[in-house]
């Protein structure tokens, strides 16, 4: 919270007309002004807690209440994701508070199998209620690019193994993630591997990644260039 103090410019005088009567004036010593300046800058740096719109829903939009963020959350986020699994497709939207180091503005695309892939479009900002707008559903380029990565997903495990899957579009990296799923009071472990755009590599351990129904808390992230197949 900002704290504003305004010193009085009026003199203080004793009510008695005696030799002890004196006047107290604000000090003009440079050190006093320097201390006041540093204190003011410190108070301004603390600022008010950020307030963001918070909601999640299936579909390309959602509306929710404006809530106060935690002190360590200095950004508002809006994320629209399109997921496909075994031929079925759905869209979800998430809005909420996040940390700037966990938030990426742009498109992230991943492939975890021939019929399992996900693309998200996200936007991060740092002012009150700045995530109240809309984002377009990300366009997905499913044209195979000749690269391949091991792909799998697993719950209740820290690692998973799977067959090679073909990457698409700008998915030039192989990514491996693990951590915990924050779903109410339960926090089961998860692991996933697959093709990814370079933007997925910006995720760091400790990051909180929103999905349609829960938050993924990453504990391990690995990312490397997808190897070129022989003959290319």
Key phrases:
mainly beta, disordered N terminus, 232 residues, 1 helix, two-stranded antiparallel ribbon
Summarize the entry for a quick read.
It is found in: Secreted. The chain has 232 residues and is mainly beta. It is built from 1 helix and 13 strands; from the N terminus they run H-E-E-E-E-E-E-E-E-E-E-E-E-E.
What count of structural domains?
Answer: 1
Q: What count of helical segments does DSSP give? A: 1
Which geometry do the CA atoms define? globular
Main sheet record: 11 strands, antiparallel
Straight-line distance between termini: 59 Å
Radius of gyration: 27 Å
Listing every helix as H and every strand as E from the N terminus to the C terminus, the arrangement reads HEEEEEEEEEEEEE
Percent strand = 35-45%
Mean pLDDT: 82
Tell me how many strands there are.
Answer: 13
Q: Extract low-pLDDT stretches.
A: 1-27, 32-45
Structural class: mainly beta
Summarize the amount of helix as a percent range. under 10%
Description:
The chain is mostly beta strands and 232 residues long. Mean pLDDT is 82; it is low at 1-27 and 32-45. Strands 1, 2, 3, 4, 5, 6, 8, 10, 11, 12 and 13 form an eleven-stranded antiparallel beta sheet that branches. A two-stranded antiparallel sheet has the order 7-9. Strand 12 (208-210) and strand 13 (215-225) form a beta hairpin. It has one helix at 30-46; strands spanning 51-58, 65-68, 75-85, 88-98, 106-113, 116-125, 144-150, 152-155, 164-168, 173-182, 189-196, 208-210, 215-225. The longest helix has 17 residues, at 30-46.
